[in-house]
Each structure stands twice: as structure tokens, then as C-alpha cells.
Amino acid sequence: MELRPRLRVNGSSAHPLTNFIEQTHRRLAGENAGAVADYIPELKKAKPAHFGVAMATLDGQVYEAGDSAVAFTIQSISKAFVFALALETVGAARIESTIGVEPSGDAFNSIRLRSDNRPFNPMVNAGAIACSGLMQEAEGDKAFEAIRSALSRFAGRELAVDEAAFASERLTGDRNRAIAYLLHSYDIVKGDVDTVLDVYFRQCSVLVTARDLALMAATLANGGVNPLSGERVIRPYTVARALSVMISSGMYDFAGEWIYRVGVPAKSGVGGGIIAALPSQFGLGTFSPLLDEHGNSVRGLKVCEALSEHFELHMLNRTSDVRSCIVADYDFARVSPRGRQSHEQKILDEHATAVRVLELTGTLSFANVDLIARRILSKPLPQVLVLDLRRVLTVSTGAVKMLGGLIESLEPADLMPVISGVDRGSAILDLVTASLGKGSRLRDFALLDEAIEWAEDQIIFRFGGFTHLLDATDLAEQELLIGLAPELIAQVGALAAPRRFHTGERIISAGAPSSSIFFLQSGMVSVKLADGVRLATLVPGMAFGEMALVERHRAADVWADTSVQCAELTLDDFDAFRTRHPEVGERIMRNLAGLLARRLGRANTRIDTLSALRSA
Ligand code: DON
């Protein structure tokens, strides 16, 4: 979906973010502090004036300004992604026994190791070389291709290598060579050191643009899923670990100040790139080769600082109202779309609190489910609890565990847990069912209406009101004929023609002329709009097509949900009968008015509930 952030008013973008990024770029373009990296000769060729900014949202929108399409070498930014890849490839235990996760407080190319001779963290060169070594051990000759392909999946396009930069660093990489041999001497790097270094130098020489970096960062911010390709590149577990080391060590001996002032997990590279990834919000990529004394891009730092300050993006500056996750909490009597026979309705009215529905919304966190649990336990437990998740976007792992724990603790109280609004096989449903024990009676329904109907059936069944839908009912039970003398009902019966329909058959088509009324005697039919939206489900004792008494054309389709038996009374026969028995006509029209009033009442209750949802 291409939004139109490019719409301009008086030369400035109408979109506040595009505007801010363009203004900030214009303002900082004149900033010339810093120097281009020169210890890798090829990097000296970078143009100091180059300056690009890109921000990618989690739905794939990318805002860009300046040289956001100019390619440069990724350098140390690759470390965050290769650490993530190594974590997924060799596993946490191996990684944690090889590399620490503590900030060193030293420069990126320090040869100092921890007291146990492990590198301080995977963001400094020593830790990064150790990561490349682990990839070499695991993938052998395919190690670099595994890295290049992973970086490409983060960027959402195939990335290439700047062979000149690779050769240049290889030629001059003595310091890294020293680090690598030191690590080899402590068995941190195994196998051939130069092979491992080649993997490391090549990964640093992968060509990216600020736009690529924004998408790579947005993939981290999006829990490991690339917002443009939709591909899951890494697991949420790995994202959390990668962002953690980016927070503590991503900006080297400037990391503390960075987190304090900007508060967004970030990683820089001597090629002039910076990535910043704010979880659940966005990914940012900047490019400007002028570096400060820490090896961080001067203009890039200032862009991040300006954005964070202006839009208050500090990751720890978070408040959210956990209460907003519950948008409706009611018992089933209020909204069921399903028509019920009078004895069924009586049971439902008598047990109005037997089913409770909580409609939830947003991203469910640990704190949300805590509130939901307290809300549920604040009232006597229902017999059926329906949690509707159709407005829930994601559920955190902690929230799933809480939800599973809640459901498991309620089931022994003879409560039937139901989840609605989720499709079979959906991630949320799989997570919740996986968190429950084998014996759970959890039911799931794609539609809330279906869940409520099922719950009603359970209550009706529990309180002995269950009648088989296919048991034929007498016309005397027809709600439209209530109050008529038995002989008059018999005459209506004689006029009406018995009709049978198979399951799935369309009985009435929307738009067709209204020519008759149907009295449903056995089976179930659904009234649906042309697009399949179900308006109501009718059971024996109810009439359909009755609006023919007041409307010339059918307003909706009627389908047989089961095999159906009914009596069809043509309007002509009814009019003739009414002329002979005006009191009957008057009685039936009063019953129809009563029916429509009840339907209106239910519809208003649904609208109330829905508007309560909207205003919540
Ligand atoms: O190993 C090096 O020195 C370079 N390939 C990468 C260093 C780097 O990007 C440091 N970042 N600010």
C-alpha cells in the first residue's frame, strides 16, 4: 500500500516525518566535523559530502532523504547481524562459551580480552572475528555465502561485495590479524586464521545503502521479520539478544552516552553507516563517511539524536495503558445473532451470566494478560469464557504463557475456555494451544458469532433444553402465528405448501420479488447478505421471508444450513385468507411488529457493544 508521504504543500512534505527527515538532512548537510576513515586505504576514497538518511516502518514504508541510495561498505554494522546469524547457526550455549556480552569500554579494535580470554562482546573486532570463526567452523567454505545471503535477507535484496575494499583491508589488516591469532592462541578461533579473517574482511566489505540499512534495522525492530519481503529472517529470541549487545556495546566506548541521550539500540561502521532499531516502531539507516574519534559517523549520530529528541523516541520512555487491551466485556445474552426457540431463549435468559465474552485488542503483553486475568477473576466464573482475539495483532511470549496458565487454572473449575477471531493454524492460536497441556478443552472459532452460538448450545444442552433441530415443530409453535386459534392455524397450514430443501441450498435470493412467507418447521437456515455476511440464523418456530408482508423485493439471501422442512404460504393466499379473517391479518402483523422490535432491540445492543468498542 503506497501511502503518499510525498504530497508537498508549499514545497514541504505534507507528511510530518518526511518533512522532519528532509529538514534535518538539510540542516546537517552543512556539518563537516569528523574525518573519513583512512586506516583501510580504500575507505579514503569516500566522498565527505555524501549524506543519506532512510527510515523504514514495520509495514514497509521507507522515508528517504539525500544520498540514501549511494552504496558504501557495511563494515562493523555487519557484526550485529553476523552475531545473530551465529546465534541461530551454532546456538546460544556455544556462542556464550566463546564470546562475552559485556561492554569493554574500549575502542572497536582493542586487543584487550576479558580475564577468561574471551572477547568482551560480539560488537568489538575481537568478538566479531570470533563470530566469523564460529560461522567458518559451522559452514566451512560456505561460511561467507551464508553471511552474505543472511545480510541480503535482512536488506530484502541481494547484496554484493566491494572486492577493492576487501582486498584493501586484507592487505592492511594487521591489527585484526594480531587479534585473530591471539584468539587462536586461546582456542577461541579454531582452524585456519587467515580463512576466518577472509570471512570477516569480506563481511565488512559488503556494499549497502542507507535504505538497505533502514530495512535491516526495521527487520530487527519487527521481531525478525523483514517488513518488505515478509520473510522471517531470525527468531524473536535472537532479535532480543542482538539488540541487547547493540544497546550495551553497539557504539563502543560511546555506548553509555548513546543509550542515555538517544535511547535506541544502534550499531555504527567505519564506512560511515549507522543503524538504529526501535522495537515495534521503525528501523533507521544513515550514511555519512565523516567519523568522530570513536569511529561513529558524526552526521549520522546527530540525525539519530535529533529524531529521538524531537519525537521522544527513547526506548525506556514508554507508557501504555494496559487497560486498553479489553475493549468489551459482556455476557452472551446481549449480542447473539442466533434465533432461539422460546424454551431455549428462556434457558439463556435464566443463565445470562453463564457465558462471558471479553473482546481484546492490540498487542497483548505480559501486563495486559495480568489485567485480563484479574478482570475475569473479579466476578463469579462463567461456564463458558470466550476470549475474542480478532483485533489482537500479536501476543508476546510472556503473555501467551500467562494466558495458558490462566486457562489451565480455570478449567478444573468446570469452565470451558473458548478463543474466537483467530484462524486455524494462525500464529497466535498455535502459540496459545502450544502453551496448554494435552488435556485442555480449549475450543477455537474463526468468528465470535460462531463462538457465542456454540456457547449458547452448551448452556441449552446443560440445562436440558436441547432439541434436535431436525425434530419437526408444529405450526402452532410459529412465533408469527402466536395468539391464533388452533383452527385458524390449521387453515393457514392447509394453505401453505410443504417444502423441503437440502443442506447448502439457497431458498431465497436477494432482489427477487417477495411472493411468499416460509414457516420453518425443522432444520436451520441462515440469512446472509450477497457478500456472505451472516445476519441471522433461524431455527424451527421462526419464519423467514416474512418481510414480504411489507417489502416488494427480498433484502437478503436465505440458505439451508441443514436439511430443512418448512411450509410456504404465498402472499396471494395470505391476502385472500386475511380478507376472510381480518383479525388474523391484524394479529400476524402485530406479531411481525413484535418480532421486528425484538430484532431491533438485539441490533441496538450489538451496535451499543460495537460503539462501546470503537469509543474504548
Ligand atoms: O575491522 C575493522 O576494523 C573494520 N572492518 C570495521 C571496523 C568498524 O566498522 C568500526 N566501527 N565503527
Biggest pleated sheet? 5 strands, antiparallel
Associated small molecules: 6-diazenyl-5-OXO-L-norleucine
DSSP strand count:
24
Bulk shape:
elongated
* Strand-pairing-aware structural class: alpha+beta
Distance separating the two termini: 27 Å
Number of helices: 20
Binned strand content: 15-25%
| Poorly predicted segments | none
Oligomeric description of these chains: single chain
Helix content: 40-55%
Task: Tell me the strand order in the biggest sheet.
Answer: 5-4-10-9-8
Please state the CA-atom Rg, rounded to the nearest Å: 34 Å
Mean pLDDT, to the nearest integer, reads 90
3D architecture notes:
This protein is of the alpha+beta class and 616 residues long. The protein has 20 helices and 24 strands. A 5-stranded antiparallel beta sheet has the order 5-4-10-9-8. A hairpin with a 3-residue loop joins strand 9 (273-278) and strand 10 (282-287). The relative contact order is 0.08. 6-diazenyl-5-OXO-L-norleucine binds at residues 75-76, 108-109, 125, 169, 176, 204, 268-270, 295.
Topology of this structure?
Layout: E1 8-9, E2 12-13, H1 16-29, E3 35-36, E4 52-57, E5 62-66, E6 72-73, H2 77-90, H3 92-98, H4 125-139, H5 143-155, H6 163-172, H7 174-185, H8 193-204, E7 207-208, H9 210-221, H10 236-249, H11 255-261, E8 266-268, E9 273-278, E10 282-287, E11 290-291, H12 298-310, E12 326-331, H13 342-350, E13 355-364, H14 366-377, E14 384-395, H15 397-410, E15 416-420, H16 427-434, E16 443-445, H17 448-462, H18 486-495, E17 497-501, E18 506-508, E19 516-522, E20 525-528, E21 534-538, E22 543-544, E23 557-560, E24 564-570, H19 571-580, H20 582-615
Parallel strand pairs: 13-14, 14-15, 15-16
Antiparallel strand pairs: 1-2, 3-11, 4-5, 4-10, 6-7, 8-9, 9-10, 12-13, 17-24, 18-23, 19-22, 19-24, 20-21, 20-23
Helix pairs in contact: 1-12, 2-3, 2-4, 2-5, 2-10, 4-5, 4-7, 4-8, 5-8, 5-9, 6-8, 7-8, 14-15, 15-16, 19-20
The protein binds 6-diazenyl-5-OXO-L-norleucine.
